[in-house]
């Protein structure tokens, strides 16, 4: 669930469009069907706005929290070149959060409200960042494979219907190619290195496999609700489809390095063209997302510290006549 | 409980995992600015996004970090979002080129037929 895996299934079948003006709704849906983008000033169904706010906000939080596991290794990156590259990648991730917060603000939620909901625990972020980067090799696996998953998700969503989100994603995707290559380079370096380096990267792979399988979220329930979100181009692909795409693109590359994945049942069914795998533990996923993961408390505590320690700076340079307006586009 | 992290900087900060610090106040994120970037001399400045800053000078600094970290940029503009006066998408039809305004389009001017006819008449 980078941004869109958590579709709520609440209320009755028609709840997404309940109370909407049928003429405006038809115009809105026709515009999307014709491949046009929706802009902030356009009329939109209340549920379209609400679902997008939840999804973009969750994505923004994922970027800003996602900088933390990798950031763990900035002070001890092996060598100056890797340290510079890691700092640049982490800066990019925080920049992605900035772009996404702006996109979300155009829908009417202020940045303060989003940050408060993050540090209060009301809003979620990608579950994968609640796991620790135990060694340098973990940061390499994150930069390669978590970013690979993020790219699949972001490329898919960039074809969605909401203009500001699509534009932010276009900018983000352009930067992700560096992250992917940087991560792959680090994994290849370890995998082609000494036995100890190979062992390090294999152990990191073992640790990250379950979180990676969780990354795209559980199989979607086929419901009227999901269908409406797909018609509105809020949700662009099923979680399973994105997971299949990830396996198809990256498992061969992992095996190619002589590394293994801790799932003996993982194989491609040549007849169906689909990957078969052991269902990851979805109870663990739910438990971690609801706060009981190895790093949830630390992640939020670090975020709170950043807000708290930065306050005097923000206040010192705040102008008396300052007032808030939402970004334009 | 004080957090013990794999990141030595976080352990050193001595963070309490029960703390409720950090709640944002209204205007903690300052003004909103729109950012325009010129990639090359001779091209137009193009809108690339928005940001928050307490004044224009800091907005330029943040714009450089946010929108000009990579690739080409020779010039940046920042404009307070509140100062942008824009049309409404609802009024999109004000831009429609109506058929009776075809005289604005170059392709409606077809002189060759007339020239050919004139030449044919001269030669006959
Ligand atoms: Fe990112
Ligand atoms: Fe990334």
Would you kindly provide a written description of the structure presented here, covering whatever features stand out?
The complex is a heterodimer of chains A (329) and B (124). With 329 residues, chain A is mainly alpha-helical. Chain A has one domain: Ferritin (Up-down Bundle). Chain A is 61% helix and 2% strand. Chain A has 11 helices and 2 strands; from the N terminus they run αααααααααββαα. Chain A has helices at residues 22-33, 46-71, 80-105, 111-119, 136-157, 163-191, 195-214, 224-231, 239-256, 282-289, 296-317, and strands at 267-269, 274-276. In chain A, helix 3 (80-105) packs antiparallel against helix 6, helix 5 packs antiparallel against helix 6 (163-191) and helix 5 crosses helix 9. The longest helix of chain A is centred in the middle third of the chain and has 29 residues, at 163-191. Chain A is globular and about 65 Å long. Chain B has a domain at 29-99: Ubiquitin-like (UB roll) (Roll). The longest helix of chain B is centred in the middle third of the chain and has 12 residues, at 56-67. In chain B, strand 1 and strand 2 form a beta hairpin. By secondary structure, chain B is α+β, with helices and mostly antiparallel strands. Chain B has a 3-stranded antiparallel beta sheet, with helices on one face. Chain B is elongated and about 105 Å long.
């Amino acid at each position: 669930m980078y941004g869109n895996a958590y579709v709520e299934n609440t209320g009755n079948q028609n709840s997404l469009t309940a109370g909407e003006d049928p003429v405006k709704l038809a115009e809105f849906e026709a515009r999307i069907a014709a491949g046009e983008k929706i802009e902030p000033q356009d009329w939109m169904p209340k549920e379209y706005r609400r679902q997008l706010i939840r999804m973009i906000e969750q994505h923004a939080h994922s970027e800003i929290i996602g900088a933390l596991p990798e950031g763990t290794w900035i002070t001890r990156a092996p060598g100056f070149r890797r340290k510079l590259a890691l700092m640049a990648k982490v800066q990019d991730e925080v920049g992605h959060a900035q772009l996404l917060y702006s996109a979300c603000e155009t829908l009417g939620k202020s940045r303060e409200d989003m940050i408060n909901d993050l540090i209060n625990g009301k809003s979620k972020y990608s579950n994968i960042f609640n796991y620790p980067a135990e060694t340098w090799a973990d940061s390499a696996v994150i930069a390669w494979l978590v970013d690979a998953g993020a790219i699949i998700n972001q490329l898919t969503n960039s074809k969605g219907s909401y203009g500001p989100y699509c534009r932010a994603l276009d900018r983000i995707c352009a930067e992700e190619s560096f992250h992917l290559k940087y991560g792959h380079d680090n994994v290849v370096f370890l995998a082609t290195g000494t036995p100890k380096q190979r062992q390090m990267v294999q152990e990191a792979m073992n640790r990250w496999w379950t979180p990676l399988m969780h990354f795209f979220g559980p199989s979607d329930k086929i419901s009227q609700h999901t269908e409406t979100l797909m018609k509105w181009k809020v949700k662009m692909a099923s979680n399973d489809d994105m997971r299949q795409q990830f396996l198809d693109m990256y498992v061969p590359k992992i095996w190619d390095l002589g590394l293994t994945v801790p799932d003996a049942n993982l194989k491609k069914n040549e007849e169906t063209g689909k990957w078969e795998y052991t269902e990851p533990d979805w109870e663990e996923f739910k438990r971690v997302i609801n706060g009981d993961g190895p790093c949830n408390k630390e992640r939020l505590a670090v975020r709170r510290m950043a807000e708290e320690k930065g306050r005097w700076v923000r206040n010192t340079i705040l102008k008396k006549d300052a007032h808030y307006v939402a970004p334009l586009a | 409980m004080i957090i013990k992290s794999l990141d030595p900087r976080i352990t050193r900060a001595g963070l309490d995992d029960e703390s409720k610090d950090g709640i944002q106040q209204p205007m903690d994120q300052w003004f909103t600015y729109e950012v325009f970037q010129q990639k090359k001399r001779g091209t137009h400045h193009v809108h690339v996004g928005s940001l928050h800053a307490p004044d224009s000078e800091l907005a330029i600094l943040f714009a450089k970090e946010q929108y000009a970290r990579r690739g080409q940029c020779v010039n940046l503009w920042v404009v307070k979002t509140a100062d942008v006066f824009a049309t409404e998408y609802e009024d999109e039809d004000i831009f429609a080129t109506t058929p009776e305004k075809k005289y604005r389009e170059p392709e409606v001017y077809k002189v060759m037929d007339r020239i050919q006819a004139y030449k044919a008449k001269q030669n006959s």
